[in-house]
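PROTEIN–LIGAND DATA SHEET

This sheet pairs a single protein chain with one bound small molecule, NAP, given as SMILES. Inputs appear in the order they were entered. The predicted three-dimensional arrangement of chain and ligand is reported afterwards as a token string under its own label.
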Amino acid sequence: MVKSPSILAYHKAFKPQAELPLKVPRIAGLEGFKIAVLGAGRIGSSLVKSFVKCGFQVTATGRREETLRRAESLGALATRDNKAAIASSETVIISVKPFQLHSLIREIKGHLDGKIVVSIVAGVKRSTLENALEAAPVYRAMPNINASIGLSSTALSGPQDGEAAKIVESILSCSGKVYWIPEEWLDAWTAVSGSMPAFAALIIDALALGGVSAGLPKELAMNAVLDSFKGTIEMISRGVHPMVLRDEVVTPAGVTIAGLKIMEYMKVPSALIEAVEEAARKARELGSIVDNAVRGS
Ligand SMILES: NC(=O)c1ccc[n+]([C@@H]2O[C@H](COP(=O)([O-])OP(=O)(O)OC[C@H]3O[C@@H](n4cnc5c(N)ncnc54)[C@H](OP(=O)(O)O)[C@@H]3O)[C@@H](O)[C@H]2O)c1
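PREDICTION REPORTED AS:
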């Protein structure tokens, strides 16, 4: 049983975690495999962290000193020279922002012969990238920021047959679960996975604030919410239907139905459905703008 410390202790314990531990699988046969991560920003450096822990040899690129130093601190070789990073690697991950893709393509076009290329740039189609980069096949992946602790939920699109597909899947499984999906589902995936850590964080924080409003210290309320989410996720993952679980908790004229009634009255379920749909719409809209820009260049 966890002993309940004083309220003061909760306040003292409440500090951001500087270094989050990461558990990674062992990828047999790919030890020392060479990967270039072009654009080691927020998501790029999360991937770098898991790739390094998996035993891959990673060369990361960026433009600012700060980006390069962070990549080095994660165990990668760091350089501003994208072409050199490609030359020293077998697989190339493209993780710059969509609006930065244009100038990167100009720099690396024609230098990807014989490399396995994976783009995690939202919206830009495989066919567009293959034409622009003069490389084939190009895979597209959509991870999320939970890659930094090996818990990404990553979608992958591209030809599923052959050695390259196995390598790409193995590399990405280093940062979490990998699902092969048709390319046309990637915008919806961006909403349910790419954006999900932000959606989930907002909901979790709001529920913890509810606990504060009801009189609990924030840290304790947050622990209750997180423990309950973990347990609920486990129950649902093991096959309990969400609505069956809900009905198990609800008692006639009880506490839970009082809260659920407010959630229904405030249209929380429809708001969440709309939020995901709107994010997917936005991913499609931004994607087609960037895709057209890259195709037209
Ligand atoms: N963030 C997410 O959760 C997430 C999830 C899935 C997919 N994505 C996709 O991942 C991509 C990156 O997103 P992000 O949030 O990680 O953005 P970010 O933090 O801005 O990272 C982009 C990185 O690219 C680097 N860069 C830009 N131009 C470059 C060039 N020519 N050569 C080398 N490096 C270059 C930047 O380096 P400097 O900072 O040094 O300029 C920066 O570190 C986007 O296309 C996004 O759609 C993001």
